[in-house]
Design a protein that fits this description.
Blueprint: E1 6-18, E2 24-36, E3 40-44, H1 51-59, E4 66-71, E5 74-75, E6 83-87, H2 98-104, H3 112-128, H4 144-157, E7 162-166, H5 174-190, E8 194-198, H6 202-208, E9 211-215, E10 222-227, H7 239-251
Parallel strand pairs: 3-8, 3-9, 6-7, 7-8
Antiparallel strand pairs: 1-2, 1-4, 4-5, 9-10
Helix pairs in contact: 2-3, 2-4, 3-4, 4-5, 6-7
Amino acid sequence: MSDNKNKIVVDGVHKAFAGAKGSALPVIGGVGFTIADGEFVAIVGPSGCGKSTLMNVIAGFERPDSGRVLIDGAPLAGPSPKGIVISQHGSVFPWLTVQQNLMFGLNGEDHGAQHSERAALADHYAAMVGLKGFESAYPHELSGGMLKRVELARAFIVKPEILYLDEPFSALDALMNLRMRNELLRILDEERHTVLLITHDVDEAVYMADRVLVLSPRPTTIQASFEVSLPHPRRLGSPEAQALREAILKELGL
């Protein structure tokens, strides 16, 4: 955490969906927390508790039934241009090369010096995520891990203030998952961002976050909060990390 200024405020959020025979199915039962500017917060919870729904509300894609979300003190009415979502589903355009995918989110006309500047910036971010030499490759020519690197680069190139990560690496194998966590932490060490991570993986939360929030079963509330004061790079096998992991798992009933 870099300072005490709140970047995101979630204030008394409730959300329900239509159930059988017109009844309401409560999903979020009154959630409130803050995320400081530059802080990395992870949210874990039991399957089906409403983690992704909560993320969609905080990112502005769903409206809460009651309560509110503030970004830099201003009420959120829809998706904020300050934030970028990276999810498990992917968002790389298959008909564009790596360089073209990275240039897609940049403003400006596609001609002249402006085009060359955008191409140079795209190549810089391709190199940053370890894709130097693959700028002209198409998505079908890349592995799953490389595709996720393209997604990371696409997010970072537009300089978002907030990264919303919805189980971004869950589709990757264990080794690539670990590599991508390290890649993300390396970039975050170079560039300042506020991060909200939704994950079912307690190890991932402990490995990456400054703070871990544990959600209750649906209708979900904040059941517990854990500060993670361990320095990076973290060793999940250390006694401190293991104690934190066990405390979180206990909250989850495991």
